[in-house]
Amino acid sequence: MRTHSEEKPYQCPDCGKSFREKGTLNIHKQSHTAEKPYQCAECGKCFSYTASFRRHKKTHSAGSALKSYECPECGKSFGRKDYLITHRRIHTGEKPYMCSICGKSFNHGATLVTHKRTHTGEKPYECSECEKSFKQISGLITHRRTHTGEKPYECPDCGKRFILKAYLDVHKRIHTGERPYQCSHCGKGFSCSSYLLRHEKTHTGERSHTCSDCGQSFYWKRSLIMHMRKHTGEQNLHECKICSKGFSWMSALNIHMRTHTGEKPYMCSECGKTFSGKWILIQHKRIHTGERPYKCPECGKSFHAKSSLFAHKRTHTGEKPHECAECGKSYSVKANFVAHMRTHTGEKPYECSDCGKSFYKKDRLMTHKRTHTGEKPYQCSECGKGFNWKVGLINHTRIHTGEKPYSCAECGKCFHKKDHLARHEIIHTGEKPYSCFDWGKL
To answer: Coiled-coil region(s) at which residues (predicted)?
Structure first.
């Protein structure tokens, strides 16, 4: 009789939806818990409802013959007539389900229901592990894989696994080189539509994500989320178990872990050099292409990495935000500050595998290793003399140009090398730093 009276006495405590029958309510409640008690013995796929489970089993028993409803437009076949009706709206453009709040239309009723939650803020699907909530059950199912570690989608080329099929599809374009999404402003291609949308904002200047605390705006939602953690104090949610360093993002921690494991999965196709992170490889490849997309608005100088531009801009502003608590010396670049701190601690983490000598900066180790290999990559265009580090070449070229940028404040004498000036200044101070060990004489 309730089918005529419209009476629905059984209400869901999670979302408030009402049902005529208690059994229907019990089935519905599984959509909140993500419980899928019905498992297919053939392929292992799980289902929340018996009806869905029965329909799926027919795909194994009847094969392709079950898909008797064929789209006349593209030839795609479906096992149910309503699936075909929904599919055909892709071709006709029909969107019969309209949102009463914003007027946006959809070709499927379920998509409208999910969309309306963006207005109400409703997130009925909650994770039992961490209590995070989602608008869609598919979002919860995908999220739960972050707890279980399940990655069911495997790349046939390299074996890398993913929690979502969409991630696998984008990843496979690394192997094929396909970049189907092209920027209408500069023609640059991207493997993923979201990458294109983010890139296009660099042309329009649109910063649609604004911090409610300080008003700072960002191109990307991810950047805003990271920024907001400065206000909430949640900056280092993910901690490295080896060195205790903290990171805002799990992905950043994963990349950091490669510094301990030595893993470098990204290889340059030009020179064979390998890197621990994808973005490091992208920046490196600009050395080969000559691309320098980051331009200083003050002097016009261009850089291949955004971080290099930020560091350079401080040469104009004079900003040196990184100050040493030991000696008060300030630095505009954090990496230089970290390296300087090692002069106080005595830490020298970069060791030469040939002779065991240690260094406090990685570039000093790389320069040192050239004394073993004999490599001299920096060559003078005037006389052909080679040097194993860039500073040596810069100092040498001043012999040809006559440039002497280091001037004595006492007598005005100029020098082409900084250490030559330092030696000269001892004449004025009277300092005698070098002692004879035989006589003890200065």
So the answer is: none
Q: What is the pTM of this model?
A: 0.41
CA distance linking residue 222 with residue 28, whole number of Å: 34
Which residues have C-beta within 8 Å of that of residue 415, sequence separation ≥ 6?
404, 406, 407, 408, 421, 424
Look at the chain and count its residues: 442
Spatial separation of the C-alpha atoms in residues 162 and 42, rounded to whole Å: 23
The neighbour count for residue 362, using CB atoms within 10 Å, is 12
Closest CA to 195 of 210, 212, 173: 173
**Which has the closest alpha carbon to 351: 364, 365, 340, 338?**
365
Contact between residue 125 and residue 133 where contact means Cβ atoms under 8 Å apart? yes
Q: For residue 428, count CB atoms less than 10 angstroms from its CB and return exposed for 0-12, middle for 13-18, buried for 19 or more.
A: exposed
CA-closest candidate to residue 52, choices 69, 30, 32: 30
Q: Which tokens go with 305?
A: 């990495």
pLDDT in tens, 238-290: 788 888 888 777 778 888 888 888 888 888 888 888 888 888 888 888 888 88
